[in-house]
Amino acid sequence: MCIVRQTLAVLEKELRSELRRRTGLAVVLLSVGSAGSIVALSTGGLTLGAEITAALLWLVYVFAIFPVLGRSFLSEEERQTRLLLWTLAPPSAIYWGKLLTAFLTSALNNALATLVLGLFGIGLPARGVTVVLLLLAAAGLSAVATLLSALVAAVQHRGLLLPILGFPLLIPVLLPGIAATQLLLAGAAERELFPSFALMTAYAGIVSILGWWLFEWVWQE
Questions:
Q1: Looking at residue 187, what DSSP letter applies?
Q2: Which segment of 62-76, 158-172, 179-193, 199-213 scores lowest on mean pLDDT?
Q3: Which residues contact 28 (CB under 8 A, 6 or more apart)?
Q4: How far apart are CA 66 and CA 64, in angstroms?
Q5: What pLDDT sits at residue 30?
Q6: Using an 8 Å Cβ cutoff, are 102 and 72 in contact?
Q7: Contact 216, 151 (CB under 8 A)
């Protein structure tokens, strides 16, 4: 229970920091608004198939959230608070607290992006399985971004390295995610989405556990 309380304390600290500075929320809103508007305006009046619509949705999900998720550990380096955080909480609590923060931020981003694109006729159907898709997308994106953010936090030109390193690791999230989105847009039954959901769940779990296992060594180095 001690590690749970410490994890929740790190999560509370991260959320309070974001709400106080409002930088992350502003970046999410601007990124979603900009990416969504560009996609919507460039496809205005066109009849899009399920394949193109799914690809555009995931394009917005990824490129709108990475500037925010990438700052998970970079902000600690910039504010020189890494050592302080390290002395106040164990590595496991820091990692899971940061990961939960990234998950909540990514889930908010996905919901906003879906709503914005839905206003322009590029959206997902209002089904319960849509919520599952958005949450699994958030889990995969946040797991990859949290691990990479810790890995490149102390490296020069880290802002450039994050998307370069992140794209190959996101492919196992993107492929089943886009496939599930295509099926959802085509009106497929829920059971047809389960294989893609299983792949997304497994990959998010593997990356999260791998990141937890490597975190202490990665961030210390």
A1: T
A2: 62-76
A3: 64, 65, 68, 105, 108, 109, 112
A4: 6
A5: 72
A6: yes
A7: no
Structural domain boundaries of the chain? 2-220
Q: What angle do CA 142, 174, 164 make, to 5 degrees?
A: 70
| Token reading at 130 | 């849509």
Token pair belonging to 203: 């990959």
| One-letter amino acid for residue 180 of the chain | A
151 and 165 Cβ atoms separated by less than 8 Å? yes
Of residues 175 and 29, which shows the higher confidence score? 175
Handedness of CA 18, 66, 95, 218 (dihedral sign): negative
Contact call for residues 132 and 52 (beta carbons, < 8 A): no
pLDDT in tens, 134-191: 999 999 988 888 888 777 665 555 556 666 777 788 899 999 999 999 888 888 888 8
Q: Which of 109, 126, 37 lies closest to 66, judged by CA?
A: 109
CB 57 within 8 A of CB 117: yes
Helix (H, G, I), strand (E, B) or coil at 169: helix
